[in-house]
């Protein structure tokens, strides 16, 4: 069996604020160790169920957070930030299931450090469905016929996953009190739970259907200010909806929509505030 793990950072056990997820802040090195151990807990569970091929894709910020020397030796790792498909790099139809770990809720929703790619995004939509990183990544998995069998993160991410994907296994390793405060499990306890629950998810994977994206999807991203929308709309094929900060792009498929989203948010970050 072959499994894909996309691991973000904001939803990792015990992490309450940006001092843990920003490489320039004092708590970051602690967070990297916890994140790596969390990946290992999932890998161990997959191996117990007979997995023969496990790929871990570092999916936070510059995407070089996991400590490769401490990662389980039976897993392969994708590390580094310049990737055409970002958080779902190398996911394809050969996988039996995808696992999203360390995930958070989308922009505008309750949850620790909730956002959608960058803090300048208010909302993202595929056609009329509001999504965040979790939903968009699940759509890409669905494009390849791969079910997302487990999501681990804060309680907000777990609620979002359950609403999108019936019968998915969710593991809330912490409960959001505010956007920058959590009630959290001890890492040793959460890691034991993750090892247990991923085995359950593997057993139940036949109950989880891939989240199939629409054909020819319309991507709409609402930015926080007009300057960000202007930058994003520089990308060919984009237009700003009149009277809004929403940038629209008509895609041929979800993969094109995903790459368009990546380009738009990178452009939007060029906005200067003065």
UniProtKB/TrEMBL annotation:
SUPFAM superfamilies: Dipeptide transport protein. GO terms for molecular function: metal ion binding. Pfam families: Peptidase_M55. Zn(2+) 2 binds at residues 8, 60, 104, 133. Keywords: Metal-binding, Zinc. The active site is at residue 115. Zn(2+) 1 binds at residues 8, 10. InterPro entries: DppA_N, Peptidase_M55, Peptidase_M55_sf. It comes from the Bacteria. This is M55 family metallopeptidase. It comes from Paenisporosarcina quisquiliarum.
């Amino acid at each position: 069996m072959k499994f894909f793990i996309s691991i973000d950072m904001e939803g990792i056990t015990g992490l309450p604020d940006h001092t843990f997820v920003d490489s320039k802040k004092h708590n970051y090195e602690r967070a990297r160790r916890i994140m790596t151990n969390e990946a290992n807990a999932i890998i161990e569970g997959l191996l117990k169920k007979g997995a023969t091929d496990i790929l871990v894709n570092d999916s936070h910020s510059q995407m070089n957070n996991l400590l490769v020397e401490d990662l389980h030796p039976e897993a392969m790792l994708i590390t580094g930030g310049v990737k055409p498909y970002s958080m779902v790099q190398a996911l394809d139809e050969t996988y039996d299931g995808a696992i999203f770990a360390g995930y958070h809720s989308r922009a505008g929703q309750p949850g620790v450090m909730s956002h959608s790619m960058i803090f300048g995004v208010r909302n993202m939509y595929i056609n009329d469905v509001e999504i965040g990183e979790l939903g968009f990544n699940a759509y890409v998995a669905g494009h390849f016929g791969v079910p997302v069998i487990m999501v681990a993160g804060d309680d907000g991410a777990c609620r979002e996953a359950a609403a999108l994907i019936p019968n998915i296994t969710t593991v809330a390793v912490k409960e959001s009190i505010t956007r920058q405060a959590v009630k959290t499990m001890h890492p040793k306890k959460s890691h034991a739970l993750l090892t247990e629950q991923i085995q359950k998810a593997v057993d139940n994977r036949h109950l989880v259907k891939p989240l199939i994206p629409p054909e020819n999807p319309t991507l709409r991203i609402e930015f926080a200010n007009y300057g960000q929308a202007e930058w994003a709309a520089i990308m060919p094929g984009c237009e700003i909806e009149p009277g809004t900060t929403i940038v629209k792009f008509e895609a041929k498929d979800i993969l094109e929509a995903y790459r368009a989203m990546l380009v738009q948010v990178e452009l939007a970050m060029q906005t200067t505030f003065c």
